[in-house]
Design a protein that fits this description.
Length: about 475
């Protein structure tokens, strides 16, 4: 028998984000939980459309330099505090101030100069320049609205571990590295959730997560946990199903462009051409992915369907390596997340292809948080490192700016004035077509410099127990569970 109590949904998530404060994170696994704890001014559902959240309506004023939001009345935070314009102002003052400076979200909202309170339920966001993506950004991560009194009166560590929002579920308990328990918030402005409780278990080992799904102790396994090799096993179980949806998530092996052999563009292009990415998609990923030419999916604004990836050409790869003076047997290190079994298989295939081109490729797995919080941002990687990215705004700016602009967290090695100028030029553009052209130009420029080996856009695979009803699998793992039921 399943271990769950009636009305409880149990979810396997591969990672403990470590903090529940919206300004501390960029992790999809944070959002998989926190989308149920917090609300933003707006919400983006599984269909990728932006709809009202804590704001009932909004208008763009002053040629895009002022956004006015009408706020929902009668909303309470989980601790009983009232939601109003002061809470919105507090949230953004905090995000853009000293607190926000410590986290990774501030640069996404840097265009906000200040928040003016017009009355209790009207606020204006005053911008230094127009930002065509800001409304979408307000649906996620740093822009989740927090209660001023609670955050002010409690220590930072306490707030990190005990989040309070206005969402349909409230935090009942959090055990680091183990899991989170949420309980329904009956007073949610959208109505009480249909579930009594949601339990998230942090299971980093894919085989364990799937075994728990098969045993009935877990109802949903969220991406990217399920290895492609286990899909047939789940599909063969009449109690379970695989839900596969096109996702924004793309995978690449990015290059250390700062030092070593990969500082040479010819070497980077050789390494890309040495690898048959299409064969890897077919053989390792069971066709559950599409090859990419730039670091974005077809869901991304700025995607250019005409752009072609560098071809697989081992002879040309060897020629370029020779031209660059790279001796046969030269070592290259590939840093990856240790708990991503599927990508581990992909990397082994990549290493084999590089071996055929004369490079001695070794794979170094890291605990995910170490790789993301230390090794990459501090520029301590080998020649290549795994980057998987959801591009949560579904806009290429959110990927390209963070990956390629000088000084950004995910760009520890490179500085390119021409690329910086292109990235900066599109941010204030209101003309949609003109901006799309610049984004496509950025993608072509990054590909021409071979800043990464673009691999594939992987479908989001959910393992779901058929007792779960009304679950709509989102492309980005940001699950809102208030309409979900269990039999």
């Amino acid at each position: 028998m399943p271990a769950q109590a009636a009305g409880t949904l149990t979810i396997s998530s591969p990672q403990d984000p470590g903090s529940w404060d919206p300004i501390d994170t960029f992790l999809v696994n944070w959002s998989s939980v926190a989308t149920n704890i917090y609300d933003g001014l707006v919400y983006r559902g599984p269909d990728t459309k932006i709809v009202p959240g804590l704001a009932t309506e909004w208008e763009v004023l002053d040629e895009g330099k002022r956004l006015r939001f009408k706020l929902r009345e009668g909303v309470k935070f989980h601790n009983g505090e009232d939601f109003n314009a002061d809470a919105v102002k507090f949230t953004f003052d905090r995000l853009l101030g000293e607190e926000g400076k410590k986290g990774p979200q501030r640069s996404n909202y840097a265009v906000i100069e200040k928040v003016d309170v017009i009355d209790d339920f009207t606020v204006d966001l005053i911008l230094t320049q127009p930002d065509p993506v800001l409304i979408t950004k307000l649906a996620g991560y740093g822009a989740m609205i927090v209660p001023p009194k609670y955050v002010t009166e409690n220590e930072e560590d306490f707030v990190n571990a005990n989040p309070v929002g206005t969402g349909p579920f409230k935090m009942a308990s959090y055990e680091p590295k183990v899991g989170v328990k949420l309980e329904a918030f009956a007073d949610h402005w959208g109505g009480a959730p249909k579930l009594d409780a949601v339990e998230y278990r942090f299971i980093s080992e894919p085989a364990t997560a799937v075994a728990e799904l098969q045993a009935g102790r877990v109802d949903i396994v969220i991406p990217p946990t399920i290895p492609i090799s286990m899909v047939p096993t789940i599909e063969a179980d009449d109690k379970l199903e695989i839900v596969s949806v096109t996702s924004p998530t793309v995978y690449a092996l990015r290059f250390n462009t700062g030092n070593g052999i990969t500082a040479d563009e010819r070497v980077r292009k050789a390494m890309i051409m040495a690898v048959d990415r299409k064969a890897i998609i077919d053989a390792v990923l069971g066709g559950q992915a599409k090859q990419i030419a730039s670091f974005q999916s077809e869901l991304s604004f700025g995607y250019d369907p005409e752009m072609e990836p560098l071809p697989f050409d081992q002879a040309k790869a060897k020629e370029l390596l020779k031209e660059a003076g790279v001796a046969p047997g030269t070592a290259v290190q590939i840093d990856i997340r240790g708990n991503d079994a599927t990508f581990g298989e992909v990397t082994q295939a990549v290493a084999s292809y590089l071996q055929m081109a004369g490079l001695n490729a070794t794979i170094k797995p890291y605990e995910t948080n170490v790789l993301l919080n230390d090794i990459i941002p501090q520029g301590k990687t080998g020649e290549m490192f795994q980057q998987s990215w959801g591009g949560w705004t579904l806009d290429y700016d959110n990927t390209a700016y963070l990956m390629y602009h000088t000084g950004e967290r995910w760009n520890p090695y490179d500085s390119d004035a021409e690329l910086d100028a292109l990235l900066e030029s599109q941010r204030p553009m209101i003309d949609v077509d003109a901006r799309e052209k610049v984004l496509q130009e950025i993608a072509a420029y990054a590909a021409d410099r071979a800043l990464e080996m673009p691999l594939y856009n992987l479908n989001a695979l959910y393992g779901v127990n058929k007792r779960v009803k009304n679950f709509i699998a989102p492309p980005d793992s940001r699950m809102r569970l208030n309409e979900v039921e269990v039999e």
